[in-house]
Amino acid sequence: MKRKITLKHIARELGVSISTVSKALKNSEEIGSDTKEKVQAFAKLYNYKPNNIAISLKNKRTKNIGVIIPDIVHHFFTTVFRGIEKYANAKGYNVIVCVSDESFDKEVINMELLANGSIDGFIMALSSGTQLKNDYNHLKEVTEQGIPLVLFDRVAEDIKCDKVIINDKKGAYNAVTKFIKDGRKRIALITSEDYISVSRERAAGYKEALLDHGMDYNEDLILKFPSMEINENLIEDFFERETVDAVLSVNEIFAIHSMRYVQSKGLKIPKDISFIGFTDGLLSKYASPGLTAIAQHGEEMGEIAAEILIDKVENDMEEETYVTRVLEPTLIERGSTVN
To answer: How far apart, in Å, are the Cα atoms of 161 and each of 60, 275, 307?
Structure first.
């Protein structure tokens, strides 16, 4: 199948900016006749067709930012949105948020909806459905037209855009290291399948910490949910089958459900078994005992993402320069690891 040509391809081939190509195709008087003829001839030769999503975004500045998050239940995503809105509002921008509900189809529909509503760019975390499908064409269509996109938390390496993440691997490594220093011997991991980028990185940190400290890496001590949905039956089966004295969870929801189950079996936290979970949210703070958590600094992540996006929008940067900002995780100790 013939590859679809974009403004970016034309600009690269002719040695001009994306903005020049766009203006030349619209017969703008700002562009010289020679350049216009050259661009238009090239576009005709290669059957260039404008991208409708990109056109609706590029035609005017709206002072609106589109945000797509996978879930509103997880405290982390609400804190990221709070950070985005805080920075954007201070700069005179409005924020429109959609929830993909971890669905690829809904993520694509949300993106088209926001584009048709006319926004200046996107900030988003990928749905688990998108990462499972490994289909990022809806993102590439936008980025290839020079539309600003910032991915946060769950990102895709092969999408050329700005990204804001935390060092997930280091967060898991530090948590397991704490367990080991506390004398824990059978350290479990509760996670989701590795197609979710954050789960993959956290599992890597878990494994590396065990091996670096001379501990056995035992896959029997890893409980993997098929998605980010909680499954009470799998939790029950796991703790009935395996004897563990520490648990690292990729999110606080998995951790809290697991804590509740082991307590129902008469185990004491942290005397018999200790817990650490990612995301320092309300569940972590108000659990009994409080859950030791790896803070992901969601509000700061949101502010940084908004700053990067608005900077791109207002400076209309044509160069293909992208940054990946990596935040450091922080371990917040509470009663689930501290007597």
So the answer is: 21, 35, 14
Contact status, residue 82 vs residue 302, Cβ threshold 8 Å: yes
Question: For 181-218, what is each residue's pLDDT tens digit?
Answer: 999 999 999 999 999 999 999 999 999 999 999 999 99
Pairing of strands 94-99, 64-69: parallel
CA distance 255 to 262: 11
CB contact set of 233 (below 8 Å; sequence gap of 6+): none
Listing DSSP states for 115-129 in one string gives: HHT--S-EEE---HH
* Residues whose CB falls within 8 Å of the CB of residue 202, separated by 6 or more in sequence, listed in order: 168, 169, 171, 172, 189, 191, 248, 250, 278
Cα–Cα–Cα angle for 107, 88, 135, rounded to 5 degrees: 20
Q: Tell me the CB-side half-sphere exposure of residue 220, using CA atoms within 13 A.
A: 8
| Residues 316 and 148: beta-carbon distance below 8 Å | no
The number of C-alpha atoms within 13 Å of 170 and in the hemisphere containing its C-beta is 11
pLDDT tens column, 279-313: 999 999 999 999 999 999 999 999 999 999 999 98
Q: Return the sign of the alpha-carbon dihedral for residues 307, 88, 300, 196.
A: negative
